[in-house]
Amino acid sequence: MDPTAYRALHESQMENNNGTTALNVFAHIAPPVFSVFHTVQLVVVAGVTHIPLRFLIEFSFVIVPFILLVTVLHPMALNITLTLLVLSAISAVHQMRYRLHLVPFVQVPGKSPQFLTCVRALVNLTTAVCILAVDFHCFPRELAKTETFGYGLMDIGVGLYVFSNGIVYKVRAPEEKRLTGARVWKVLFGTAPLLLLGFARFFLTNELDYQLHVSEYGVHWNFFITLAFVKLTGTLIMDVVRDPEVIKFVAITLLCCHEMMLHLGVSRYVLSTDTQRTTFVAANREGIVSLPGYLALFLASVYIGWVVRPSEEITLAKKFLRRAIKIALIAAVCWKMIYVCEGMFGISRRLANMGYCFWILAIGSSVTALCMLFELFVYFVRFEEPKSPDQIMKTDDFCIPYVPLVLQAINANGLFFFLIANVLTGLVNLVFQTFLLGTAAALTIIAYYMLMLCVAVTFLYVNKVKLKIW
């Protein structure tokens, strides 16, 4: 097909999409969590220690099924999720039933909780698969980004990135100095790489005449610029407030003010097709107007991270379970708020409105709760004897590295993984007219692309190379 005609076809595929349901989107996100659960069981039972073999097993049982789930197995997503849930529950109960007498003594390490590694890596993995898969016909259009309102699997990418960075934000100690010029400069310096990536992406897409849907962020704006703003402003606000119990009220207040401004006419300005993109603000109105929503989402995620992340060296199972239940209750409230907001305001990634923020918090909190229960299960079934903090300091075997190697590798170099995914996605779209390819060719390309990505980050991780900006 002629390149100009193909570009028009490609962009038309991204228009007028009203999405699917919140349940259907979650049914595509939850299965990887259960896949991780069963893959870990398989690796432990088989006693696999050879790194290349372990990598192949994990790639085959975690990543390949997800590729199939968002393409050819899409109609069966809910059935697959329910089946995996039942199988996981049966497996967990079967392994736990003979160890009930150990309940009061089970301990979970408090430092660097692995469930956060799992959550962040799964966010990266989901995004990497979808940004390429969406360019093929075998990816269902209802899961692509929505035009204005609705639920789409592709809509959660930027929101979950903000969430995954918020839950690992380390609140500064009260005794540290308040906001100073040096601190502001340090934060600005840390934000600069994201801004440079944003500018680089804009210039490259312009030079290569790459297909771009301007209603996503605007003409010049993009994902990296939004992340840079959230990092800069969110960090400065946290330096001023510091108390996570207070920051949740700041997040709620900011979100309410954002929604009020949208209803006072800002949303009409952003969504109007009659508004010409003649000025910088008008040209990038989606990216600029959505910033308060993403900032509120980040601050709420910081509070959630503070709730789930232990501060002590040893966490007893009972206390860890209470945290998991608390985050599950937060998720339940957010799921309820989604349907309240849907009837009142709608769900819009383009505006990052209240409904969208609650949707992302509901998904993020649900996945976090599942990963916390998984971590508790691992330490429950592999518990040997109680250890004191002194014993823990003298030994390295208290922490059980249950997270799959490939997910640890993705999390260790998350931004690098995402950058390479974007570069390879661009290359695939420049070499192939992806929408004209058949299902078999599409699956082959996506699988090979993911294999290259995972091999690259695993190689870096095994060799202890860390390329990290945020």
From TrEMBL:
<comment type="similarity">
    <text>Belongs to the PIGW family.</text>
</comment>
<keyword id="KW-1133">Transmembrane helix</keyword>
<dbReference type="GO" id="GO:0072659">
    <property type="term" value="P:protein localization to plasma membrane"/>
</dbReference>
<dbReference type="GO" id="GO:0006506">
    <property type="term" value="P:GPI anchor biosynthetic process"/>
</dbReference>
<dbReference type="GO" id="GO:0005789">
    <property type="term" value="C:endoplasmic reticulum membrane"/>
</dbReference>
<dbReference type="Pfam" id="PF06423">
    <property type="entry name" value="GWT1"/>
</dbReference>
<keyword id="KW-0012">Acyltransferase</keyword>
<feature type="transmembrane region" description="Helical">
    <location>
        <begin position="402"/>
        <end position="424"/>
    </location>
</feature>
<feature type="transmembrane region" description="Helical">
    <location>
        <begin position="219"/>
        <end position="237"/>
    </location>
</feature>
<feature type="transmembrane region" description="Helical">
    <location>
        <begin position="320"/>
        <end position="338"/>
    </location>
</feature>
<comment type="function">
    <text>A acetyltransferase, which acetylates the inositol ring of phosphatidylinositol during biosynthesis of GPI-anchor.</text>
</comment>
<comment type="pathway">
    <text>Glycolipid biosynthesis; glycosylphosphatidylinositol-anchor biosynthesis.</text>
</comment>
<protein>
    <recommendedName>
        <fullName>Phosphatidylinositol-glycan biosynthesis class W protein</fullName>
        <ecNumber>2.3.-.-</ecNumber>
    </recommendedName>
</protein>
<feature type="transmembrane region" description="Helical">
    <location>
        <begin position="358"/>
        <end position="381"/>
    </location>
</feature>
<feature type="transmembrane region" description="Helical">
    <location>
        <begin position="149"/>
        <end position="171"/>
    </location>
</feature>
<feature type="transmembrane region" description="Helical">
    <location>
        <begin position="436"/>
        <end position="462"/>
    </location>
</feature>
<feature type="transmembrane region" description="Helical">
    <location>
        <begin position="249"/>
        <end position="271"/>
    </location>
</feature>
<keyword id="KW-0337">GPI-anchor biosynthesis</keyword>
<keyword id="KW-0812">Transmembrane</keyword>
<keyword id="KW-0472">Membrane</keyword>
<feature type="transmembrane region" description="Helical">
    <location>
        <begin position="291"/>
        <end position="308"/>
    </location>
</feature>
<feature type="transmembrane region" description="Helical">
    <location>
        <begin position="183"/>
        <end position="204"/>
    </location>
</feature>
<feature type="transmembrane region" description="Helical">
    <location>
        <begin position="53"/>
        <end position="70"/>
    </location>
</feature>
<feature type="transmembrane region" description="Helical">
    <location>
        <begin position="25"/>
        <end position="46"/>
    </location>
</feature>
<keyword id="KW-0808">Transferase</keyword>
<dbReference type="InterPro" id="IPR009447">
    <property type="entry name" value="PIGW/GWT1"/>
</dbReference>
<keyword id="KW-0256">Endoplasmic reticulum</keyword>
<dbReference type="GO" id="GO:0032216">
    <property type="term" value="F:glucosaminyl-phosphatidylinositol O-acyltransferase activity"/>
</dbReference>
